[in-house]
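debug: dumping io for the single-chain case to check the tokenizer round-trip. Nothing else runs in this session.
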Amino acid sequence: MPKKLLIYIGTFVASIALLWIALVLTSLIPNEAIRTNMEKSAEYYNGIDPFYQKSGRNSVADNYADVILLNVLWNIRSSDPFVSSLDTKYYDGNDGTTDYGENYGFYAALNGAEPNTGYSRYWHGSVVFIRPLMLMTDVNGVKLTGFLAALLLLILDCALLIRKKQHFAAAALPISFICVQMWNMRLALEYQPVVLICLAITAVFIQLENRSDTALCTASIISGAMTAFFDFLTAETLTILIPLIIVMIIRKENGSFRGFRSELFTSLKCGMAWLFSYISTFIVKWTAASIVTGENKFTAAISSAEVRIYGETDNIPAPLRMLLAPLANISAMFGGSERVSPVNIIVGLLLTIMLFGGLYLIMRSGISSNGFAQLMLTAGLLPYLRYIVLSNHSYLHDFFTYRAQAASVLALIAAFWYCTAGHSNKKITAKKGKRR
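debug: decoded output
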């Protein structure tokens, strides 16, 4: 146990160190070198609705978050990358008498306005990629690059699965992302990191599938740190649930699935490793920012977390909002044009009930999945638990949190497939010492 603990702690420390070093190094690119493309980006956002909705709630462009991110990027300065990468700030467009909004704030920042709003609760790690790309293109080019990178990673994952003769997994993975309109990640910078991390770490999990649980937990720690570093609390659970579900599908297909209890224990270990790393990455940021500024950054961060859990939205009581948050995300996935669209919710629930009902009848009929279906259904329900726990955030931001349901879709498809088709009755013995 001490040896494993040292491996886990060392992995976490190394991950944070490398990520922060990358942030500092890319921040050395001077603002003047990226000014032209930053100004083009400011012109693009001029006059655009902060939350432009093309059709349904799943097609909302979060321009509000993007201009703040670019504003923060501009204020992480090459003249003082060490402090400014920790004490992250932006100019919010309020001159003391009039609030002109964040779009103007970004434009004003490019023209010398000093930052007046702290934003140290996040690492803003995507600056690592956005700043270098701004040397070559504006924000639209950056968003397109991120989308193309995600497609390449998805193709890589499928290729690795096909190489392992995992044809069902290679088909189910893209289907799960199609169901949450993966192409709409082009609409905002903040939508992209979690998808990119998910697909990148899934490739690692595929390669480590037949290794020890220690290897999977180590990969989970890296995933948790990267998610907290790059993501803005969008669909963070994707980066642990998708990789784990893929691993379990591979084991089921290979005949090396060890049963519900054993694989649940493995999943829990990986999940706890991911959660520890995820939370600790935020704590490191708040601690480091507090040290370099001499200010308590924990108070604002914890207050923000409380708002996401307990905050009020549209004067909806907390118990009702805990019910509405999952429904809003189901509505968004099925193209609802309103936050809670009854028609889309009914369609989504009917389809889900039909699948779950059919799966239940199959399981009752005596077809055994060795606990695989139960594990998949457990994993598939976790995004909805997240919606309930962070109910205010999930209800208010359903237009991007709904993407976490890609894991639910993948889990449900896998459970249904292996129960209905009687697959994976192969008896393959794992090599001795490979998994423990």
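debug: round-trip ok. Strands lie at 51-53, 60-62, 89-90, 117-118.
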